[in-house]
Fold this sequence. Notes:
The structure holds two protein chains of two kinds.
Chain A: H1 21-25, E1 41-47, E2 53-59, H2 61-64, E3 69-74, E4 108-109, E5 115-121, H3 124-131, E6 135-140, H4 147-150, E7 166-174, H5 177-182, E8 186-197, E9 206-212, E10 217-222, H6 227-238, E11 245-248, H7 264-276, E12 280-283, H8 286-292, E13 296-307, E14 313-325, H9 335-340, E15 351-360, H10 374-392, H11 396-403, E16 412-413, E17 419-420, H12 425-436, H13 438-451, E18 455-465, H14 473-478, E19 487-493, E20 499-503, H15 512-524, E21 531-534, H16 552-578, E22 586-589, E23 592-595, E24 598-604, H17 605-614, E25 627-632, E26 641-651, E27 657-667, H18 674-693, E28 724-728, H19 746-763, H20 777-803
Parallel strand pairs in A: 1-12, 10-11, 14-15, 20-21, 27-28
Antiparallel strand pairs in A: 1-5, 2-4, 2-6, 3-5, 7-15, 8-13, 9-10, 9-12, 13-14, 16-17, 18-26, 19-20, 19-25, 22-23, 23-24, 26-27
Helix pairs in contact in A: 10-11, 10-19, 12-13, 15-16, 16-17, 18-19
Chain B: E1 7-10, H1 14-24, E2 28-31, H2 37-42, E3 50-53, E4 63-66, E5 69-73, H3 78-83, H4 85-90, H5 92-98, H6 104-109, H7 112-117, H8 124-131, E6 135-140, E7 143-148, H9 149-152, E8 153-155, E9 158-159, E10 166-173, E11 179-186, E12 196-205, E13 208-217, E14 224-225, H10 227-233, H11 241-245, H12 262-280
Parallel strand pairs in B: 1-3, 2-3
Antiparallel strand pairs in B: 4-5, 5-10, 6-7, 6-10, 8-9, 11-12, 12-13, 13-14
Amino acid sequence: MTDTATPATGGIGDAPVRKEDAKLVTGQTTWTDNIAFPGMTYMAVLRSPMAHAKINSVDVSAALEQPGVLAAFSGADLADEWAGPLPCAWPVTPDMVHPDHWPIAKDEARYVGDAVAVVVARDRFAAADALEHIAVDYEPLDAVVDMEAAIADGAALVHGDHGTNTTYTWPFSNGDVDEAFNGAHKVVTRRFINQRLIPNAIEPRAVVVAPIAAANEFTMYTATQVPHILRLMLALTTGVPESKLRVIAPDVGGGFGSKLNVYAEELMALVLAKRLGRPIKWTETRSEGYQTTIHGRDQIQDVEAAFDEDGRLRGLRVKLLADMGAYLQLVTPGIPILGALMYPAIYKMDAYDFSCTGVFTNKTPTDAYRGAGRPEATYAIERTMDEAAVELGMDPMDLRRRNWITHEEFPFTTIAGMTYDSGNYEAATDKAMELFDYDGMRAEQQRRREAGDRYQLGIGISTYTEACGIAPSRVLGSLDYGAGGWEHATVRMLPSGKVEVVTGLSPHGQGHETTFSQIVADTLGVPFEDVEILHGDTKVAPQGLDTYGSRSLAVGGIAIYKATQRMLDKLKTAAAHMLEASPDDLEFSGGQFSVQGSPDTAMALGNVVLGVFAAHDLPDGYEPTLSAEFTFDPENFSFPHGTHLCAVEVDTETGMPQITKYVAVDDVGNVINPQIVDGQVHGGLAQGIAQALYEEAVYDDAGNLTTGSIVDYYVPGAPDLPEYTTDRTVTPATSNPLGVKGVGEAGTIASTPAVVNAVLDAVRHLGVTDLDMPCSPERVWRALQEGSASRDQVAAQAQGGQHA
Amino acid sequence: MIPAAFDYTRVGSVDEAVQALGQHGEDAKVLAGGHSLIPLLRLRLAFPSVLVDVGRVDEMRGVRDDGDHLVIGAATTHDEVMHDDLVRQHCPVISDVVSQVGDPQVRHRGTFGGGIAHGDPAGDLPALALALDATFVIAGSGGRRDVAASDFFVDYLQTVLGAEDVLVEIKVPKLGSDWGHNYQKFNRVAQAWAIVGSLALVRRSDGSIDEARIGLTHMGSVPLRASATEQALAGASTDVIADACDQAAEGTSPPEDLNARADYRQHLARVLTRRAVEHALGG
Ligand SMILES: Cc1cc2nc3c(=O)[nH]c(=O)nc-3n(C[C@H](O)[C@H](O)[C@H](O)COP(=O)(O)OP(=O)(O)OC[C@H]3O[C@@H](n4cnc5c(N)ncnc54)[C@H](O)[C@@H]3O)c2cc1C
């Protein structure tokens, strides 16, 4: 980038204090729930206590009698308000079963938490109390909770009129799979359960709608990742013209995909604000959110991998069942498809066969949760590599080396048809193994095994890659996604020399204001503090496709970089005129334009800006506004990769696993802000480890969410998580001019298999061959009991043989 | 997660509290730190119409020296108990166990007496009080009475406290320096309740064990003592620890939940009790 102009802190590669932090740590944030308007009213939603029931009648009359209650409606009462059902933007196959999903159930409730009626009152307490006065006559229907039961003959149907619980089947195949398996020396067959998870953004969902009734105009404040997508969808579902809707994502406290959606409550709040002509607020409680905010994962993965005798991977077969829940939310069906092309991961093979069947069950809908499809794929392939190493009698790292794409082979088109632009798996792995002291740890493991130590040591590996920077609009189109993936930016110079940057991204904790300020400051040679990033308001930033899929830097950041370059070009033309030189002879550095060869003929950027603002003397035809735009649509995803190594100690008496060492060497290309990248990796690791050891959304047979509150659903906190050793290798992406890759999801994608591989490695010699996630102490203990029972049996048989 | 409406009254003395409870009967509830009661209200699992806040009753706060005993005011917060000099000097086991209750926020609001009065067998304090043979001073319409810990816990979330009773203070014996202690709290995340806990108080002399008192957390509908293990350890040499602790789950019928089925809880009780006894002996 530029040289002397780079501010001491705040340029590319620096780690200035995040711009966001001061207001966050002093509580001067504007969360949606903090927003107040005169005459505010409050919405509360009555939810089905049954997983599946016919709604015979809903009587709201007693609720209307309650003090402070302004309105109460059933689903039937509001049926005419909707211009369309809740949207699903990803019809993955032409014949996908796509039942209507209304914001409030009209005649049937299909999961515990499905909205059945809604109340508006003068305060949130009156609204909550009024719910107890709504009488609903439910007629229980059979619920189907388990995916395999749902696709069995004679299963109860979630959507009776569609005649099936199968949503779709999505196939992919490349290469001669039969040949790969028939000629194999060894076929490794495994089933993995990728359990259902509940995203836990620290800020619950909340929405406020402020109407200007006379003008039929509405402003919605909502805790969302996607104000732009939401505005369009609100228009399509409520009939309010898009041009009359302003959507603002104020300070948003985390999302992890759970706020990448269009939710029933957002539609209800808009429609009720319109009907009542009053501002309206709804904030979910944590346990309400557990039932109604989308869940993640929930797949059954059947994997077969065929190997030659020397460990060469010949082919891979993957069959998935993916739980959709009761309805299709915004991108529900596409989540497993985001993973479909990543099962081959970093490995070369002759053939790959994949199919995914989406399944309806009477549970909360699933959708994107940090990594969305790719953590599932990575878990399956990285667990399979460790299992194959055992069956082949090889070191699990040697088996990976035997099969991975070497750094000389990039760009490399995988068997799944993805073209990885760059990577260096050897470098990341070498660094990780050194930091981890791999050989030393293996020796320690051996020592403990021989000593029969109460605390056995296991080592787990994950050499992951992922595809992110959700964009290439063409690729998204080829996967039948309903929109593109470009991103837009505007850069404006203010007369005082300050810079305003408008982005269509919608940050919710990532530190975009800091990272993007660094890019702009570095490019224009202005102080980091002089750059202001505007976002999250469709009136301020009318064009954009929001934040998810680790796309912000690799797509939106590049749009900003390119728009800034355009701004520089525009300034250069004016500067050349002012310096009476040809633009080709101008140099820009240190925030100054100067004429090549005569450094004294120079002009500071701020003076050029002022000159353009005054517009007294500009080249003919030069438009005197300093605004530059760019819309970026990359041609490829970015492919971060890395090697994670995890050591777990298992207390063989209690089954308790504990991570004692965790090394993550990630290659996310060039780094704009190392501290923010480390933060993303740390948080990602926490959520991946959480899946491996702690979290699971459990339903009982009747479809009740047993882990219904944060007391029962184990979100680990800082005291539960290990110290991380993080480091990087840098192999720039070639698909964008900054050479950056996404980092938001990498830690989550990588870590889960590393941890589970380590737990199994610690106890495999004790007869444990399989463990489901989360590897709770009770699960590990039971596996150890069964393991020792089967070892005793083997020993007894061996003895019996001697006697015979 | 929004409670039904209720009235609130703050009282300044134990007598006022008893009076207020007498006035409202079954509809009233004592409010101390609110860290168990408020969640119940928010889940709409309890519907008292009046909360009687005892949080600022001076005579229910603080720790005092009473000869052979310490007297802990029921409304003393966990954090105050944990850092109290008398407690640390004469009964450090209390400080140790209380330091494992929840997290700092919970310990700054929740009270020692509340943790006992709530009668939750998964709480850490009931087993502690039981193992200490604590005595509870209860004020009611008929005056004050002493109840032994062994008589206090009736069933899950049920104690001998009646609707008009206030737990005023808790008397615990001072333990001499010949007592060792250890609490093994087994849980999956740091701020969670115990899946199982085992508290060992052991008095040793000359290489043998004089007396052992073992309290079990979350092994039944009430806190329990591991009596068989206590008997096997009394007057025995340290060689018998493993065998004695194998009896720690005798007579228990522990609850089942997502973290543990009954047989696993019983297994944990045995392992944790052995570890607690070994650590209490300085092992
Ligand atoms: C997140 C969280 C984690 C926790 N983790 C743990 C843990 O690990 N271990 C643990 O032991 N506890 C834990 N607790 C509970 C905590 O210790 C509570 O403080 C305690 O159980 C109740 O004390 P309180 O003062 O808050 O009582 P309150 O909630 O005010 O009252 C609880 C019950 O006791 C009654 N009561 C209270 N005081 C009196 C009195 N003086 N006389 C008569 N009745 C009375 C009330 O009427 C009510 O029925 C946790 C709580 C939370 C919120």
